[in-house]
Predict the structure.
Amino acid sequence: MRRGTVAMLLLLMFSLVGSGILTGCARKAKPVSAKFPEEEAMMEGAAGRTGGEAGLGEGAAGEFEEGELPIRQDQRMREMLFAKASEEMQTIYFDYDSAVLKPEAKTNLERAAKWLKETANVNVQIEGHCDERGTNEYNLALGERRALSARRYLISLGVNPDRIFTISYGEERPAQEGHDESAWKWNRRDEFKISF
Amino acid sequence: MIHRLRLAILSASFVILYAGTLFGQGDIIINIHEPGTTRIKIGVPAFVKDQASPPAQQANLGEDFSRVIRDDLDFTGLFQVFAAPSQHNSSDSPLKAWEPLGVESVVRGAHKSLGQRVGFECALFDVESETRIVGRYYTGLPDDWRAIAHSFSDEIVYRYTGKRGIAHTQLAYLKAKGGTKEIHIMDYDGHNSYQLTFDKSIALSPDWSPDGKKLVFTSYRDHNPDVHMVDLGKRTYTRLSGYIGLNTTPAFSPDGKTLALTLSKDGNPELYLFTMANGGLTRLTRNSRVDTSPTWSPNGREIAFVSDRSGSPQIYVTDREGVNLRRLTYSGSYNTSPAWSPLGDKIAYVSLIGGRGEIFTISPTGSDVNRLTFNGGNEDPSWSPDGRYLAFSSKQLGQRDVYLMRDDGSGIKRVTFGGGDNMSPAWSP
């Protein structure tokens, strides 16, 4: 009940800020935080380090704006070599033109998060991919959103954001050749690579 | 309706008046691009070898040279091109021999060898009066012969339209081969192509600086999609934007001082303005969905781009301060790759029709939606600098190749022929 009220309030605030009505006062007020109360506590560590705001879980996407989750620019490691990930990090798949995590994807990510937390010396790179339909430039952005969805979920499960890198290949690197759904469904994916 | 009718009559009378332009009597410019306008009949016979000149190194140089001009003029859509005069003529005058065909002007000329160089005397004659409209003498290296032919084609177009033609321009494009995509540059008609980048990586979304001296693009050469710039004159290669995440779809502002681009450094693909002088960033968009593929209005005031904030990708327009946002496309569930015409009156884009890409144009107010292609697999529209033609890529023959067409979808012409997939053409200024 209480959670519902908070959500309604947040929704209201966001729609007002989003539509620019409250922009003037929002600037003076405390920055709006896009978190459920329970996420607030969970995200404290991460937000403190990155200086940014944590995002909502995927479940709320569509109703809420996802908060920003800036990526630390000093974390760019040019020479880091990422190799095929372990059994614990299975490729996850998406619906057409969607970056929403499906239940199977969440299950895979939960397993991955557990393993990542147990294996502290590993960094992970999430590669977002698309099927060949649509245009390259849009698919690059869509692939990035797919990678960022998984990143956001791993962070929400307690994985240190500084260990998670993302890269989008758009439609440039299909897993399966072919020009119908039998290939496309394997190409709309996030792959995981790790680096020690 | 009456207004439109009057316009049609007006353009018809201009066609009759064009001879006046040729005689240099005034600044009457015909809008030959008006639909339904009769094409001007022009004769382009093979150039002859200058009698006193030593033999040319290239066997059929005179015919090859004329063929380039014929192709240029034919592609414009303004001319009906004839290679030879009528066989049934009784006149002694070489110009009058074209009259039975209704040919109004004739390109004639001669080529000569000048030691290490070649020279071309090019002239355009009016058939009726048998007077020379324009004459030009060009010299260059033997390899320059195509560029010289293009220059004279543009001169002819200038005489008829008041605007220099686009035959001297180039296209930057991507060639995909063995998992890599490298940037190549070719003449607008597909000849003289050469490879610009050798990164053994993926290059994407090339765009020319307004002065034509630089190219910006995204490359994965440093294991992240970063924006790089090649200075074609200085032969330098610089990384401009290397934030973590996406650095994609760079687009030069018309004054060349700013790039609009997509960055995901703040956790989501958003549009930014990047100041060339100091790398300063201004953020334009702020929402949790995709914002990408910016293209500038020719006055630099507005930017059209792609966003899926409504649920599916559509074209939006914002001003360069990131405010006054409006949605442009409403029909179709997938509209991407906007390209704002240098004339300002149209935005070309790709719409998926039954899952297949087709090229459309729309006015910046959202009216006048025009479908230009009908065979599927069409992407990446890019305008010619005069705003009359579009380059695009198409998979209509199985592999992806670069094609050109007029802004009404007519005159489709293939300009690359395999050797890998060819795509993402960017038309030079």
About this structure: Chain B has two domains: 39-161, 170-427.
